Amino acid sequence: MRRVSVVAGEHPVAPAPVRPAVALPVGVRDVLPDEWEQREHLRSRLTRLLAAWGYRGVELPALEYADPAHPQSQQAFKLIDSGGQVLALRSEYTTALGRLVQTHFPTGPFPLRLQYGGRLWLRTQTSELGRLREFSQVGAELVGVTGVRADAELLALADAALREVGVQAQLEVGFPGFVDATLEDTGLPAQARDALHDAIDRKSGADLDLLAERAGLGHSTTRILHTLTELYGGPEVLDEADTLARGGRAREAVEHLRAVHEAARAAGLELLFDLGVSRRYGYYTGLTFRAYAPGLNQPVLGGGRYALPGGLPGAGFALGLERLASALPAGIPPQPETVLALDFAAAAAARATGLRAELAWTDDGDELRRVSQARGFRRWVQGEGLQDVTPPDLTDNPEATA
């Protein structure tokens, strides 16, 4: 029996629950071959597309210095190195990419078009990320330029990326500054505005009424805030937003969105607008956008415009590979045939023709037949001439994958 030691004057401490030796921490998972194939297929298609648009690859370290000002500071895994420095595992890419630009490209040449990909880690589980604490992203950043053309380029690129991997998703564009400007016109203090901003983002009319009543807002102002939660749809939404825009900032936001819409439409895009959207991270300074696929409650893509320290403008987006995979039909993309090679010469010859080849590990024909049935090997080959060797009793396995 396990004993619990008790020090005089202290309460006994229950032992930690015993976990299976093979268990994984909550929020992480193994990736098996079929899923790995699908994920690598997505990654490869995306990186090739981004490169075709002029976005060059960079690689960012998984470890960075912990910074209380980091937008994900509360959710990041932290550790201490042998020198006593507090480090954090990478929890999002935009901040890390900003550091890279400041370090290696402080004076450009601009615009910089960069792409990245890799793993991210979070200490906490969130429904927004499907309860995963380790996940993969591919993303693109356009740094050093701003304006309608830059925003339209990123929207067009995001749409092209989704089409490239076969995900049917709709881009939804927001502008958190429009909500900010409308709330500033109420004259409320920042804390009250933040609470209203959150209620508008969640489109919670009940919370909005309660907060407006506490703040002493009149009926007409409360009606305007309710209207913000309803500003969702096609370009006609911008006309309605015009009627709410009282100050210069709000009007500028609407005019910018109109211009972006025209540029995007010229590129063949049809956008939806959600002008009640709030910030996900505090660093977004302008247009934001997300893409939703049918059947998924969370976006498969998200991004927006931000400012790097020093005021350098940037904008970008990231695609979650796990989300993209879940938005696609089950199964892996078509792969080259895999043959069983009985010798090294046959294996090399098969691979040279674009086939995949696995080497026979034994001369035992019965064992090779058994594995061929289980793995779906239709052909055995030998010699440089790729001579087919058909086992006399190797029959098709209807459940095997060709």
Unreliable stretches: 1-9, 394-402
Figure out the total of helices: 12
Task: Count the domains.
Answer: 3
Q: What is the H/E string?
A: HEEEEHEEHEHHHHEHHEEEEHEHEHEE
Q: Would you tell me the overall average pLDDT?
A: 86
Task: Summarize the biggest pleated sheet.
Answer: 9 strands, mixed
Number of DSSP-assigned strands: 16
Shape, per Cα inertia axes: elongated
The CATH H-level homologous superfamily of the largest domain: Bira Bifunctional Protein, Domain 2
Give keywords.
402 residues, alpha+beta, BirA Bifunctional Protein, domain 2, 3 domains, nine-stranded mixed beta sheet, four-stranded mixed beta sheet, 12 helices, 20% strand, elongated, disordered N terminus, disordered C terminus
Explain what you see.
The chain has helices at residues 33-52, 94-104, 148-164, 176-184, 190-201, 205-215, 219-229, 236-244, 248-266, 321-327, 344-352, 365-375, and strands at residues 56-57, 63-65, 78-80, 86-89, 112-121, 134-143, 170-174, 232-233, 272-274, 284-292, 301-307, 313-320, 338-341, 356-359, 380-382, 387-388. Helix 1 (33-52) crosses helix 10 and helix 5 runs antiparallel to helix 6. The longest helix is centred in the first third of the chain and has 20 residues, at 33-52. It is built from 12 helices and 16 strands. The protein has 3 domains: 30-168 and 280-334, BirA Bifunctional Protein, domain 2 (2-Layer Sandwich); 176-276, no CATH class; 338-388, no CATH class. The strands form 3 sheets. It has a 9-stranded mixed β-sheet with strand order 1-5-6-12-11-10-7-9-8, with helices on both faces. The model is unreliable at 1-9 and 394-402 (pLDDT under 50). With 402 residues, it is an alpha+beta fold. It is elongated and about 85 Å long.
